[in-house]
Amino acid sequence: MTKPKLLLHPGSSQGGSTWIQNLCGRNPEILAQQHFHYLHDFRKLPFDALGSDDPAPFHAALDSFLDRDAPEGSTETVFLSNENALGDPMHAGGLFAMAPAMARDMLPLFDRFDAAQVIYVWRPLDRFLLSAYNQRKKQGSKITFSAYADTAAARGYDSRHVIEALRILSTRAQVTVIDFEFLSERPRRFAAEFFRLAGVALPEGFDYVQGGRNPSIRPEGIKILEHAKDFLERKDYMDLRKFVQARFPKTGFTDEEQGFLDDWAGRSAANEKTRLAELGKFARLIRVPPKT
Question: How far is Cα 283 from Cα 177, in angstroms, rounded to an integer?
């Protein structure tokens, strides 16, 4: 029996995962015509068993799930996406501290497929931490921002665990890391690149699910950016975006949040460069492409 190919997207949290999943959910027929199948129930598997003393429950559920839902045949591609596949990002032991152990326990997954690739969306640490805080607030967390900032600083968050997890996955799959700025600046081109890596060309009529972009900018500001993004160079576009965000704020950054971003950008700049260099040793890195 021939096996399908696998495209695994293990998050990360706050890295556009829900948007990517929504693209698949809104366009199943278009994608299926090109032999690409998003299996949304992958998110329901017991990932908390990974990295524990007994990962067997995860693999039992995985085998049952794939036997039921995965197509057969070497021309088919199975897409599995879960922003929590590498564990709770804000672990007390460090950012994604459980990720390496979970990645090791996930390796038997690849035996079910003929070939595999992993796509991870990389977000700079300062913006990731701020987005993670805002997500916690949406979920009802009572922690104050100052307490959160103090906790993050005390834990000395770093991306080393993510690097190690991706290195482990690279022993069984080709790993591609895409800069989150590519998604935030040019979502349609990002989507085209994301699916191109899986051999899918997005046709006319593809639903890009644009809602929710630029959440800190009012609609009139978003219209300005939409008009400008196709003819401005990246630096000019980012300068315009900062101006529009200040001129048409929907939420914007408070002084406290901006101070947090400045602090983490300063403390993690050298580390971020080091981590990306480490990634480049075993993974393909995709940045925001130049304007054409």
Answer: 7
Report the distance separating Cα 95 and Cα 129, nearest Å. 10
Collapse the DSSP code of 51 into the 3-class scheme (helix H, G, I; strand E, B; otherwise coil) and give the result: coil
Q: What is the CA radius of gyration of the chain?
A: 19
CATH code of 58's domain = 3.40.50
Backbone angles phi, psi at 156, to 5 degrees: 55, 45
Q: What is the pLDDT of residue 228?
A: 82
State pTM to two decimals: 0.85
CB 269 within 8 A of CB 275: no
Q: What angle do CA 273, 251, 22 make, to 5 degrees?
A: 70
Tokens representing residue 81 in the block: 């996406």
Q: Report pLDDT digits (tens) over 23-43.
A: 999 999 999 999 999 999 999
Are 144 and 251 in contact by the 8 Å Cβ rule? The answer is no
Residue 186 inside a domain? The answer is yes
In terms of residue numbers, what domain contains 173?
Answer: 5-142+156-211+280-286
Per-residue pLDDT tens over the stretch 96-114? 999 999 999 999 999 999 9
The whole-angstrom separation of Cα 122 and Cα 276 is: 9
Instruction: Report if residue 44 sits inside a domain.
Output: yes
Cα distance between residue 137 and residue 121, in whole Å:
23
Q: What is the DSSP letter of 249?
A: B
Give all strands (DSSP E) within the chain, no chain letters: 5-9, 36-38, 77-81, 115-122, 174-179, 284-286
Hey, CA dihedral for 146, 150, 153, 159, is it positive or negative? negative
Number of domains in the chain: 1
Q: How high is the pLDDT of residue 78?
A: 98
